[in-house]
Amino acid sequence: MLSALKINEVIQEIIQPANGKQDLLKRGELLKVLSEEYKNVKIAEMVNMKPQAVEQGLMLANASEQVKDLVRSGAISPTAAIGALRSERSGGPPAYDVLSAMVEEAKRIGKTHATAKHSLHPIGNGPTRKVISEAVKVIGDLKEQIDELLSPTQQQKRSEYESKLVSLDLSPTQLRALRALHVQTPRAAKRSG
């Protein structure tokens, strides 16, 4: 059990670091001391942080020594380490393996400090802006194609074709075969035209 004095010292060090600036790993280690006595939400209130920031600090503080060494040495950003740890927690590859590969990639291109952009596979919570942008473009293209297929002239052409097919007095199998050919015909006509 922590004494009230020790708790106060830790809170003060988190809120007002001695040297004016505090790295995320050091803050995480201080938060870990408080987590022996309090839940994350309570810690967040005590140190005037968001619960998510407390959780991220604790994640970093509870990482393997190998991961912490990469962060301490400055070879990897704390944010990238947190992303890799979160990914590992969600069933992704081991954080140290991911971070080591990021450091190697950064060195390969002449950088001394690896960040998330040096990752060979995605880390963090979701897709990048570039991936989202490309997906939106593809969806827009698909919408245009669907709109074209459902335009009144296309529907009218289909309706006329169906009425002609029915008037031929064909078997269901023959109708299905002709319909399948008709679906392919407009594409073939576009290619040749």
Structure description:
By secondary structure, the protein is an all-alpha fold. Helices cover 70% and strands 0% of the residues. It has two domains: 4-118, Arc Repressor Mutant, subunit A, CATH 1.10.10; 131-192, no CATH class. It has ten helices and no strands. α6 (78-89) packs across α7 (95-108). The longest helix is centred in the last third of the chain and has 21 residues, at 129-149.
How many strand elements?
A: 0
Number of domains: 2
H/E series, N to C? HHHHHHHHHH
Residue-averaged pLDDT, rounded? 80
Helix share, percent: 55-70%
- Computed structural class: mainly alpha
CATH top level of the largest domain is: Mainly Alpha
The profile of the biggest β sheet is: none
Which ranges are low-confidence, i.e. pLDDT below 50, for 5 or more consecutive residues?
Answer: 184-189
Radius of gyration: 30 Å
**Beta-strand share of residues:** under 5%
Multimerization status: single chain
How are the elements arranged and paired?
Blueprint: H1 4-15, H2 24-35, H3 40-47, H4 51-61, H5 65-72, H6 78-89, H7 95-108, H8 129-149, H9 152-167, H10 172-192
Helix pairs in contact: 1-2, 2-4, 3-4, 4-6, 6-7
Question: What keywords describe this structure?
Answer:
mainly alpha; Arc Repressor Mutant, subunit A; 10 helices; 70% helix
